[in-house]
Amino acid sequence: MPKISTRGTVMPASPIRKLVPLSDSAKARGLKVYHLNIGQPDIATPKVGLNAIRYLDRKILEYSPSDGFCSYRKKLTAYYSKFKMNINADDIIITTGGSEAVLFAFMACLDPGDEIIVPEPAYANYMAFAISAGALIRGVASTIENGFALPPIEKFEALINEKTKGILICNPNNPTGYLYSRTEMNKIRDLVKKYDLYLFSDEVYREFIYTSSPYISALHLVGIEENVVLIDSVSKRYSECGIRVGMLITKNKELRKTVMKFCQARLSPPLFGQIIAEATLEVPEEYMRDVYDEYLERRNFTVDTLNRIPGVYSPIPMGAFYTIARLPVDDTDKFCAWCLSDFEYEGQTIFIAPGSGFYADPTAGKNAVRIAYVLKKEELQNAMLVLEKALEEYNKIMNG
Amino acid sequence: MPKISTRGTVMPASPIRKLVPLSDSAKARGLKVYHLNIGQPDIATPKVGLNAIRYLDRKILEYSPSDGFCSYRKKLTAYYSKFKMNINADDIIITTGGSEAVLFAFMACLDPGDEIIVPEPAYANYMAFAISAGALIRGVASTIENGFALPPIEKFEALINEKTKGILICNPNNPTGYLYSRTEMNKIRDLVKKYDLYLFSDEVYREFIYTSSPYISALHLVGIEENVVLIDSVSKRYSECGIRVGMLITKNKELRKTVMKFCQARLSPPLFGQIIAEATLEVPEEYMRDVYDEYLERRNFTVDTLNRIPGVYSPIPMGAFYTIARLPVDDTDKFCAWCLSDFEYEGQTIFIAPGSGFYADPTAGKNAVRIAYVLKKEELQNAMLVLEKALEEYNKIMNG
């Protein structure tokens, strides 16, 4: 049997999806499993998007342009201008989800052995895409005590060497929910400028900010326009995860030209995804407001409840729909698996993501979990109760 | 401005799509452009596929499983069994088009510096995906004089070294239309077995075989089951290029496990694509027969007409919907560009793909073009006339 590639061998299994078999067997045993493990909203997709394909009159399902439909890219500029982002249609390349935008950004900017610096905990799949490109992620730990604020910029600077090509941030942050302040963004800008680095900025959660602090996009930063690569996606904001539509946005022409070569190789982004996403730009403001209010209530409830469970602590996330909570257990990898394989409370259990998956160092994050508050409040209520009972029983076993 | 990656710099622009700006300006000048450059069928997509989304009752457009819907993978086994391919649902991973299947196969099997051997001319994007994985394509030239039959297997063997990880074939072949015989496939099998190589086999055109010779899939070959990686796609067979649904199929469990890590990182293949592709499995036989007859007629007409143009030669392709033709010009890169930028015949011109894009060596294929017979016969008729007139005028200019 021929050898698997080293790349394929070191590629991590998704820390979120790797417990799926345990969850499947829990369900097979008849348990109700609360999915707090994945950013899959239970919110209805806007009707204006769904209707676009219902009444579609297309006879041939052709390739679309490699950079996406021009009509869609043009309309997106109006969307971004609402956030004071000055983006032209030509700056936008439509990708197959935000995932492909990250992959192509890394492919076009990073060579094997190159390094990027990422505040941790971080979205696990950045690591997977870095490995695909042969690049290395150097983590700088943010801490729960500081609510996962940007670590001191000196810690970033200390890691910079001749292999360093960029900094990656997610803002508002998945998994911490942190929103970078203007002061923090300016520090990042100065460092990016000083060393002429790329700034990869994943901003897919900009609609979900629960604080009066302003949203500072990487594209708001003056003087590093050619350095910024913005990652975006419609998945979370319109509950359209399945259609696989994202964007790679950059003012850097040469980079766009390079990214386009990767886009041409894969021919085109999904046709129906683009049709739906384009129509969804007409979503009523009321929809967005309702979704926002819903998440705000869920956040408040989740964080408040977590902090009432003995030994549990969660900072108050300012955005996105996740929080990183510290649990009173030694090893959340074991605890999360145990919840699915050996525990139940009144026929229910919980599926939460172990913290270790959000760090390049596999020994980090052992007492943390990521909780996605993507369920209705009544379900969250039950899930929090199940978590409390699980912690009680787990610690009884561990200490007994 | 930070540096573009070396990978991104050496990545070739698509030889087929790179002339698009010239074609766009020809259209802007009011010319009718016949697109013989791209495998975009003009055939109507089966209604059974289109209807599947029209009457869909889904409220949330969720992620699908990373390996695709189980129901779809199960039904596909019946499709493959019609071709005597013994494939289980677990052997199949649904990808975002055949493109992603090639990329993930390379990512999981090949490390930077590894080599694969490919008979040339070959589908241009294999090169792009190889570069993405840091791997090298070693071409073995097939020749127009032999109708692009498999080159002597000794030529493959001569290239094998410690870096060689696999052989890649496309069968029936894009761009040549060649169908590998049982004898040829057995030779490939023996070589793959002798050196324990991967055999990547792209078989997306199996429905389009215009000869009584049997279709020998790589998965029909006995004794190399763990070595074969089959690439498939619904794009061409159902005129569903835009929905981005393909398959990576292998009996090699360890490889599947590795590929799944790449699949999990990009979360899921397109939702609507899968719904349409699954429904399309119920396509009436009559549809497939009509499409087949249509392409057969187009092939016969195209090849016959090409061979009547002075100085032009095309072998008779046995499958797919392309042919490689030799033209009486020095440099088809220049000729194809000239057709779009400087030529017209009665308000019309042609867009054909220069041969050089189908070889790793950029100096090869200079007197060849790939012609996709994906237009209605009346349009092909006009296009062939335009080609004849273009050759006349081009050679008058060149010789004058």
Automatic annotation (TrEMBL), chains A, B:
GO molecular function list: pyridoxal phosphate binding; transaminase activity
Record keywords, A-Z: Aminotransferase, Pyridoxal phosphate, Transferase
Stored CDD domains: AAT_like
UniProt GO BP: amino acid metabolic process
Aminotransferase class I/classII large domain sequence ranges: 34-384
Annotated InterPro entries: Aminotransferase_I/II_large (IPR004839), AspAT/PAT-like (IPR050596), PyrdxlP-dep_Trfase (IPR015424), PyrdxlP-dep_Trfase_major (IPR015421), PyrdxlP-dep_Trfase_small (IPR015422)
Required co-factors: pyridoxal 5'-phosphate
Similarity comment text for this entry: Belongs to the class-I pyridoxal-phosphate-dependent aminotransferase family.
Name of protein: Aspartate aminotransferase
Organism: Azobacteroides pseudotrichonymphae genomovar. CFP2
Lineage: Bacteria, Pseudomonadati, Bacteroidota, Bacteroidia, Bacteroidales
